[in-house]
Amino acid sequence: MDKSKKRFFIALLPPQEMQDRANEIKQYFADRYNSRHAQKSPPHITLQPPFEYAIDSVPTLLESLSNFASTRQGIPITLSGFAAFPPRVIYINVLKTPALLSLQKDLMERMETSLGIVEPVSKKRPFTPHMTVAFKDLTRQNFHAAWPEFQERSLQYEFVADKLTLLIHDSSRWNIHSEFPLS
Asked: For residue 140, what are the CA distances in angstroms to 17, 24, 148, 167?
């Protein structure tokens, strides 16, 4: 990758209590199913998938996100059980509410019109909000072992997402770069 650029993505992070629970589930996948990749980022709901952005233009990115966030209100989020993208991904299911779908769509449009950031894959498939607990290094065999266990497992959690979070990749993991309060 170009040294003058870094990788970023934009997400909603749950409160610390739910992050701790999600991290325990990720640890379970690491211990039981040898799937550690999900541990490389804090628990989150991706709104804008990873993109490369010039380091010297980051102030423009921050200003754009700050302006966007200031026009939006916090939104209720409901986590409900588990779901999967077979044969590699298991995640905490996030209910698709009109408020969440609208926030994500508007953010993607803002990123494209004001910053020229486009995610071609996202344009082709519907937004499925989720909080990943195992992916990438979860083998097909381990997916088939883990999925029956998680398919029926209950998990209910509600919170108000009151900020957008910009994460940056440091070449080994994702870290919080900045947060933007929703009004």
From this structure: 30, 22, 13, 29
Mean pLDDT (whole number) for 67-93: 97
φ, ψ dihedrals at 116, nearest 5°: 70, 20
Closest by Cα among 97, 96, 90, 95 to 152: 90
Structure confidence by residue, pLDDT tens digits, 118-138: 988 777 888 999 999 999 999
Neighbours of 40 (CB within 10 A): 13
Helices and strands (H and E) in the chain: how many: 5, 8
Closest Cα to residue 16, out of 43, 47, 46?
43
Whether the predicted model's global pTM rises above the 0.85 cut: yes
Q: Tell me the C-alpha distance between 72 and 131, whole Å.
A: 22
